[in-house]
Amino acid sequence: MHPMLNTAVKAARRGAAIINRASFDIDRIKVTEKSPNDFVTEVDQAAEQAIVDVLKQAYPDHAFLCEESGASANLHDENEHVWILDPLDGTTNFIHGFPQYCVSIALQHRGQITQAVVYDPSRNDLFTATKGAGAYLNDKRIRVTKRDKLADSLIGTGFPYRDMSQLEQYIEMFRAITPRCAGLRRPGSAALDLAYVAAGRLDGFFEKALKPWDMAAGALLVTEAGGIMGTFAGDSDYLYKGDVIAGTPKVFAQMITLLSPFARTV
Fold this sequence. Notes:
By secondary structure, the protein is an alpha+beta fold. It has helices spanning 3-23, 42-58, 91-95, 167-177, 190-199, 212-224, 238-241, 249-259; strands at 31-35, 38-41, 63-66, 70-71, 81-89, 102-109, 112-120, 125-130, 135-137, 140-142, 154-157, 183-185, 204-207, 228-230, 244-247.
């Protein structure tokens, strides 16, 4: 395992230990609503601090882009190492005791995601990837499925709860995709959904208005597992545009055909 990936795994497990302890007494957790239907807990904050502490101890000169604490300096320096992390992706699931959430950590180097960890503490599933070295689940190599027809595929998605003005557009996307696939699922953790595409548990995924920490690690998992990532227009700058499609190569192409009318125009 790459040394930086090994450190990221250590950090993910440190954050997950805090999450696991808190999961035994969810009713005592302090919850704050950042915006309508977008929650943060003291667990998110404590887990993020634990993760950052591990990474900073190993790499004190690296920059950070975190969901709860934001960005540190020099994020746009092309020579910079930037850790992009979400300490608890799926907070709403977590505070309801719904076991679909994860820790997501990615390392960006010179504009490229080079290391990725998605750790599901409730199932002890550890998804890892190093650019050019493949994707793994609990040290076993994973690949996207061989399905080549959208009609046979199970697709993941997410609802636009951060910006309800997008709800009507999402309903139109739902109408476009649902009759043409085997099933549509909305588990509630984009990072874990992307890991599931990489592991063959889903054949594709789409969502709008994501943040970099929602998908940076999952994106590397998908591409290292043989899948394709892109915007609704099929472009490669999804990480900062926020609209993303992922899938097996042929399923991805079929999803682009249906969803390209919903691509951002700016």
